[in-house]
Design brief:
By secondary structure, the chain is α/β, with parallel strands linked by helices. It contains 13 helices and nine strands. The chain binds S-adenosylmethionine. It catalyses: [phosphatase 2A protein]-C-terminal L-leucine + S-adenosyl-L-methionine = [phosphatase 2A protein]-C-terminal L-leucine methyl ester + S-adenosyl-L-homocysteine.
């Protein structure tokens, strides 16, 4: 299908293909290890070294924070990955011996039905869901096992989100991490605000990781927006991506105790081990670092917390 003819929601759903193909290519080159992604995404055309390094920083930065959270909670926690696309985090955490009480992925039905089909038809993926001997329930677009749940909902519709969380038997008093990896920016901010408020209202102890654009009010931001618009995809929530402060404020405004946003430049140098950086910087030669620096300046990780049990979630921030 011609991308120019896609309607807005279809263009948003297709961003999952872009993200998973970019990750697939970086994995193929050895930026990080993911034996599961090739089971969901076929090999793909070459991406630039800047894109590959950008995805490396995104995936490893986010994974490092999630691992810290699970270790701090000693596994007595839940994870909800909103707009999960073809993410393989659940299986990678299992391999790392980091299991949790519940792991829920939610996306549009069109995306979850494809993921559901791939999981059902792959022994390696299915094996990871049998850990608790509970029967696996399938529908066209959903899959529910004891720990892992894949459910379909439009995140702009709070009633759908609430009923899916209930169907997945989420426990509202168990510490719960919410992950939004390049997701909120596709929703008008009244919807993302309402979703963040819903989480803060329902969950007594919660930690959020939000990865997306920042510093979008300059020329680089304008070019990114017009490129996306020409592909039928507007960043409807870009207003929240003006600065690190606007990224933090959206949480404080919506019932969270605290938030801390870092540009990817900082994440790359403070959250990823120097040994890893040395290793990946040898994979591909970068002509000049300016474009990568620009890219890193325009993406951030924002963590936020609501810490009713005083578990010192603020110490899981990223510096
Ligand atoms: C850029 S992709 C990111 C996928 C995955 N989080 C990753 O980083 O690899 C954005 C994802 O968010 C999902 N998404 C965006 N808006 C959504 C909404 N209103 N309801 C459900 N899913 C949504 C899209 O379908 C897509 O899978």
């Amino acid at each position: 299908m011609d991308k120019h003819n896609l309607d807005g929601d279809e263009a948003v759903r297709s961003t999952n293909d872009d993200a998973s193909h970019c990750k697939r290519f970086a994995v193929q080159l050895g930026y990080w290890t993911d034996p599961y992604l090739p089971l969901l995404v076929r090999s793909t055309e070459r991406k630039t070294p800047e894109i590959n390094r950008g995805y490396f920083a995104r995936v490893i930065g986010i994974t490092n924070i999630i691992e810290k959270f699970i270790k701090a909670m000693e596994g007595n926690c839940q994870i909800v990955n909103f707009g999960a696309g073809f993410d393989t985090l659940y299986w990678k955490l299992l391999d790392a011996g980091l299991s949790v009480k519940k792991f829920v992925e939610i996306d549009f039905a069109n995306v979850t039905s494809r993921k559901c089909h791939y999981i059902r038809n792959n022994d390696k993926l299915i094996r990871g869901l049998h850990s608790d001997d509970e029967e696996i329930r399938y529908s066209t677009s959903e899959l529910h096992s004891g720990v892992y749940h894949l459910a379909a909902a439009d995140l702009r519709k709070l009633s759908e989100v609430e009923s899916k969380l209930a169907e997945c038997s989420m426990e509202y008093n168990v510490p719960t991490l919410f992950l939004f990896e390049c997701v909120l920016v596709y929703m008008p901010i009244q919807f993302s605000h309402a979703l963040l408020q819903l989480i803060a209202d329902k969950f007594s102890t919660t930690f959020c990781i939000n990865y997306e654009q920042v510093n979008m009010t300059d020329r680089f931001g304008d070019v990114m927006l017009s490129n996306l618009r020409s592909r039928g995809c507007s960043l409807a929530g870009v207003e929240a991506c003006a600065s690190l402060k606007s990224q933090e404020d959206r949480f404080i405004l919506n019932g969270w105790d605290g938030a801390r946003a870092l540009e990817m430049n900082q994440v790359y140098h403070s959250l990823i081990s120097p040994v890893e950086i040395q290793r990946i910087e040898k994979i591909e030669f970068l002509d000049e670092k300016e474009l990568l620096d620009q890219l890193f300046h325009h993406y951030c990780i924002c963590v936020a917390w609501k810490d009713s049990l005083d578990l010192k979630l603020n110490l899981l921030t990223i510096d």
